[in-house]
Amino acid sequence: MRTRITELLGIEAPIVQGAMARIADARLAAAVSEAGGLGIIACGGAPLEWVEDQVRQARELTSKPLGANVMLMDPQAADVARLLCDLGIDVVTTGAGSPAEHMAMWKEAGIKVVPVVASAALAARMERLGADAVVAEGTEAGGHVGELTTMALVPSVCAAVDIPVIAAGGIADGRGMLAALALGAEGVQCGTRFLTVEECTVCDPWKEKVLKAKDSDTIVTGRGTGHPVRALKNKFARDCRKREMTCTNPDDLEGMYAGSLRRAVEGDMEMGSVMAGQIAAIVSERGTAKDVIDSMVADAEALAALPLPELLAGNAARA
């Protein structure tokens, strides 16, 4: 399965692991890269020493291409951007801002730059800045989200740019991967699907909450502050929603979200922000990162090879 994304990033399968803050570390990223995808270390909010240590650990676990994510609203984003050049990272994905001030430095260092976008207009702007590709992330995704669905966003972005597009949001198996390719994407990014793999270091209760999730079990909070986040329903999320509905001053809400992701990472499944996407409903297995990548590629290729009547017959049989 070769696309412009596999050629650009030097990977075997057009699958990128999502940059999940406080979750996507060296162990997970290295496992995804070693399995043929592109592993991403999430640097947002992390100390510089941690970023350096994680990149070095990942390099010890795999010699394959490795990525890191820079959250541009992070106060130390400029320092992280420079550090990643010094560490020789292969790919940088970005979110929550414009990478314009770092683009020349990254390009000079030979780093591929792949911003995450939530609209066709933003994708076109990133292409003008010199981005090598973009991740078009639909609102189905976990964590910080935009408004457009993946089904609507991806073809719009593909029509707006000439650089390769990676689809994200609501993709966890070969069916979703093939659908994204049919929409014009040349790769996919998955976050929620990797939450339950052996190499992911989130606590077991978080993994179990994902595995037991139904299609209606996620909720978006923070819309009133301009920073909407999708997570699995729990007491914290429901309390947030109630306060958001009655609050008249968005500034009064900011403190409510502080530390919520940390609490979830530490195992508090009721008062933490247990981020996951809507696709959690079809995540029913643990396995390894390699299991996920191998099965996604195999299933997508098998479905793509079916004549339409056989594909429809299979859908009817499942129904």
Model description:
The mean pLDDT is 91. Helix 8 (174-182) links the parallel strand 8 and strand 9 (187-190). With 319 residues, the chain is an alpha/beta fold. The chain has 15 helices and eleven strands. It is globular, with a radius of gyration of 19 Å.
Terminal CA distance reads: 29 Å
What is Rg? 19 Å
Structural class comes to alpha/beta
Low-confidence stretches: none
Task: Please give the count of helices.
Answer: 15
Q: Residue share in helices?
A: 40-55%
| Envelope shape | globular
Strand order of the largest sheet: 1-9-8-6-5-4-3-2
- Whole-number average pLDDT? 91
Per DSSP E runs of 2 or more residues, the count of β-strands stands at 11
β-sheet strand percentage: 5-15%
User: Order of helices and strands, N to C?
Assistant: HEHEHEHEHEHEEHEHEHHEEHHHHH
Q: Tell me about the biggest sheet? A: 8 strands, parallel
